C-alpha cells in the first residue's frame, strides 16, 4: 500500500498542541526543528507545504503562569496572543536554518465564510506559496469567542485544504493514527491503516482529546478528513514523533492511518462549482473570449466582456454567457459588477488606471472556473 502523499504536490500539515508544546511543558524545539527540516526537504522536491500549528494557548498558559487552562474566555485569548509570539519565533528560527521563509497567517471562521475574504485568503496563500514561503496558520483566537470558533485546528486544517485545493492533509498527533477505539483507554485497540474518509463507522471509533492539552481528540480529525475529502484531499493521521514521518510519507511509505477521498481533486471542485453555488449575475462575452474559454482553456479577461447583467460582488459566482445567451462557464469573479462595467472592453493593463487598483489581470481566473 502506497502513501497518498506520494503523488501529492500541495500538502497541508497540521501539528497539535500536545506535540508542539511537549504536553504543555514548553515549545518542543527539537520536534519543531525536525518538522522544519522535513518540510524544507519537501519544498526542495517542488511540493507546496502549508503548516497549521496549534499550541498558542498551551504556550501562552506557560508564559503567563497559568497552572491549568483558564475558563475565562478573555484569559484564554490573552494566552493565545502571548503564546502565538513564541510559535512565530520558533518557526521563523527553525525554518530559516534551512533557508526557508515563513509567514504568519491567522484566520477566523468569518474569514472563510465571507466570499470576498475567502478569495483574499486564497490569493494570499497561493501567492506566498508561489514566492516559496511556508505559511504558518493558526486560528485568530484574539478576535473570536466560543460560539464562532473553529474550536480545533483539525477543522481549520481541512478548511485550508479546501481553500487552496490541497492534495493531502497530514494531521500529526500524539498517537500513531486512528485506532478502533481510544488506545489510552482500550489496550486491545487496533490501528486502522486505511479507510474511506467520511465512513460513519470511523466516527464511532473516535473519542475526545486524550490529554488536557489537546482540544478536539480523534473525532475532529475524522470529521476533518471528511471535510477535506469534499475538495478531493486525502488525509493521513500519524504520530508526529515518528522519525522522518513527512519525508517518508512523501516517499510513498504508508505510515499511520490513511483516509481516502472518493473523488479526485478536480472532479470535486467542478462538482462544488456546479452544484453548490448560486450565481448572482452574468457577463456576456464576445466570440473571441468564448473560444478562449471553451477551446483553449484560458481565463476570462475584461476585454472579452460585452455586457453585465445583475449585481454581484468580488468573490461571487457569475455565469459567462455568449451573445446568444447560452451559458458557457461559471466561476468566481475578481471584480464587482460596478467595476466590471468600467473595465469591460478594456485591456487588463488599463485596469489600474481605470479603477485605481488591480485584483488580477483576469476577470475570472481559469482555476476558479468550470465550463458548463
Ligand atoms: N480511536 C482513537 N484512536 C486514537 N486516538 C484516540 C481515539 N479516540 C480518542 N483518541 C484520543 O485522541 C487524542 C489525540 O487528540 P488531541 O489530544 O486533540 O491531539 P492534538 O493536540 O494532536 O489535536 C489521543 O491522544 C487519544 O487519546
Ligand atoms: N488556536 C489554538 C488551537 C487549539 C487546538 O485546536 O488544539 P489541537 O486540538 O491541539 O489542535 C491554539 O493555538 O492554542
Automatic annotation (TrEMBL):
Biological process terms in GO annotation: L-proline biosynthetic process
E.C. no: 2.7.2.11
Gene Ontology terms, MF aspect: ATP binding; glutamate 5-kinase activity; RNA binding
Reaction(s) the record says it catalyses: L-glutamate + ATP = L-glutamyl 5-phosphate + ADP
Keyword check for Nucleotide-binding: yes
Residue ranges annotated for the PUA domain, each copy included: 281-364
List of residues binding ATP: 14, 173-174
Pathway involvement of the protein, from the record: Amino-acid biosynthesis; L-proline biosynthesis; L-glutamate 5-semialdehyde from L-glutamate: step 1/2
InterPro entries: AceGlu_kinase-like_sf, Asp/Glu/Uridylate_kinase, G5K_ProB, Glu/AcGlu_kinase, Glu_5kinase, Glu_5kinase/COase_Synthase, Glutamate_5-kinase_CS, PUA
Binding site for substrate: 54, 141, 153
Transmembrane segments: none
Alphabetical keyword list: Amino-acid biosynthesis, ATP-binding, Cytoplasm, Kinase, Nucleotide-binding, Proline biosynthesis, Transferase
Membership in a protein family: Belongs to the glutamate 5-kinase family.
NCBIfam families for the chain: proB
Protein name per Swiss-Prot or TrEMBL: Glutamate 5-kinase
Protein's gene: proB
